[in-house]
Amino acid sequence: MAIHQESTSNHAKYQNQPAKICDLQSVDFSRLLSQEPEEVDKLLRCCKEIGFFYLDLRGIDGRMMLEDEQELLQVMRGFFSATAVEKNEIGLPCQAHGFEPVGTHAGVVENTMDGYEILKVSRDEVSAGSPVLPSIIKKDIRVFEEFIASSNIITKTMLACLSNALNLKGADRFEASHRNDHKSNTTLAMFRYVPTNLSENCVGHQKHTDIGSLTLLFSEQWGLQVMSPGTTSWEFVAPRPGHAVINVGDSLRFASGHVLQSCIHQVVPMDVAEDRYSIAYFLRPESEKKYKDSEGRWISASQWHDEKYEVFKRPHVEQVKDSILTGGMESGTKVA
Ligand SMILES: O=C(O)CCC(=O)C(=O)O
Ligand SMILES: [Fe+2]
Fold first, then answer.
1. Shortest-distance Cα residue to atom 2 of ligand 1
2. 169, 181 contact by CB (below 8 A)
3. Residue limits of the Fe2OG dioxygenase domain (predicted)?
4. Which structural domains are found in the chain, ordered by start?
5. Rounded to the nearest whole angstrom, what is the distance from the C-alpha of residue 109 to the centroid of ligand 2?
6. Complex ipTM, two decimals?
7. Checking CA distances to 244, which of 39, 184, 191, 218 falls within 20 to 30 Å?
8. pTM, rounded to two decimals
9. Is the minimum distance from the CB of 265 to ligand 1 under 6 angstroms?
10. Residues 32-63: pLDDT tens digits?
């Protein structure tokens, strides 16, 4: 509680506004694993009402993921402290793998660029035993592999629970379009936000909804904010030890007939004195999977992925011209 209050006032100091904290529900992973009806119902409610929730990983089934997270954080600290040349050895030849420096996408404030650098590892490539990575990080492939394997089990357990809760059968079940041996854009993304404040040129992570199906997110530090469906104000997601933050992405929202919510979120700088590390496992559907998007078009998962990354790079004035950045969530229409 003490940490919570201190961080809140820290934020108010930098932002000059009262910091509101989002009252997110917590879902227990161990109970989902055994398909306990009450927990599965709670999961469905979270995904329908806001699309953001905590996942409690402190039980025996989730603790290994928490260990994987700590090991990955060590690897990230080593990587991000390397020279720009070492980190940028392969650049980001495609969205699946590589490194991108600060300032590649639009930032959280109008007319700024983003304030993070990012390392990406493709699940398909790790699964095939041939990830494309900068040389300095190749020794850490085992750490990526373990993190990805744990994340895969956890996110697919949630997909199975959601399919059950929505009474989906056969090919309509969400897992049926997330088969491991079918190509997808599923990616592990590691972020380092540089210490900045809101008046600098490269700051935070712009508002958006996630592209894919489910995002498993870890950060021990403040900065993540959500805008609940049907509202227009930002609330902080408090870091919670022993928990991941899960959010529904556009692809799962579309696959559910827009019943599940892919909530708008962003990252603002909280502490101008320290780096912020976060880890996101983006579970995405098979590339060929088709659904109706926020503009009413039939589109494949890979096409939505590619178009959305193009929009992330555009200046803010261009981004507002269609609904791609926020997946159609900004209209405020909440499907209950
Ligand atoms: O860094 C974070 O906490 C969130 C990152 C995020 O929302 C994203 O990359 O989609
Ligand atoms: Fe996101």
1. 278
2. no
3. 183-285
4. 15-316 (2.60.120.330)
5. 16
6. 0.98
7. 184
8. 0.92
9. yes
10. 999 999 999 999 999 999 999 999 999 999 99
